[in-house]
Amino acid sequence: MNDKPSVIRETDEDARILARDLMHKAAHAALAVIDPETGFPSVSRVLIADDVDGAPLILVSGLSAHTKALMKDPRASMLFGEPGKGDPLAHPRLTVRCSAQRLDRQGDTHERIRMRFLDRHPKSKLYIDFPDFCFFRLIPLDASLNGGFGRAYILSAEDLMTL
Amino acid sequence: MNDKPSVIRETDEDARILARDLMHKAAHAALAVIDPETGFPSVSRVLIADDVDGAPLILVSGLSAHTKALMKDPRASMLFGEPGKGDPLAHPRLTVRCSAQRLDRQGDTHERIRMRFLDRHPKSKLYIDFPDFCFFRLIPLDASLNGGFGRAYILSAEDLMTL
User: Fold this and answer.
1) Nearest to B43 among A7, A35, A77 (CB)
2) Phi then psi for B65, rounded to 5 degrees?
3) ipTM higher than 0.95?
4) Which of A132, B38, B91, B150 has the fewest C-beta atoms lying within 10 Å of its C-beta?
5) B44, A93: Cβ pair inside 8 Å?
6) What pTM value is reported for the model?
7) How far apart are CA A28 and CA A39, in angstroms?
């Protein structure tokens, strides 16, 4: 087995557009973190919005396991792209390796992100300002795009970001 | 913050049935593994079937990143349950902590699992016998069930299994 199997295609503009589209249009994603107690990976569903540069944003409760994990270890992975009808593997999906950055409640960045999240998820106004909730920015490091059978690409952070 | 927040409910038969149902009815899931090169978690989409005892089964290519990861580190996590219409977090989902066991191609176990997988995914006959494909059984260790807002449960392996 090669480290980079020959099925990986050269990244082109179509692949970049597809990847950014999967991130931008997603209202939710699967978020994987490292459980600080066991070292196991742990995957859960999160609501997402995207920042001005395309970075995913999550709003999480301090009581939740994924929040506790990210506070101890910022290494994360996100899966974007929902399967529609038919074969689930025929639909494009994107795995993004990320570093999670917790945001302070004060400042312009928090206000910008709060507005973007509210715009995508109006019902989050019910809990967005709860004191135990906070935002993380998931800074993309690189990604693996599967555009359907035989259409695999490796993307850089630059390929994914819009600024 | 408590280790076990008060929002965790006592596990009852309804919670067990919902969790088993989410695992049993799923045709695909999000699989999180530890990337052996970086130590990051990595989450991707996999087709699944279930074994006679309820354990999830996956058929994976030796070329794929998740297969290489599981060969080095059997610690895994799986997310079951698809969001339907409306708020994605209003729909039940289940995170299962698993230990991945690779299956030999010979023997009755392989034949049973091959038939169960084919039954769930008839199109997999196109590649199920390719020499670089193999099955893993994901042995559940415990799980976190979220049945919708405020309906969280911790389940044991016994709660999840049907034998």
Assistant:
1) A77
2) -65, -40
3) no
4) B150
5) yes
6) 0.94
7) 25
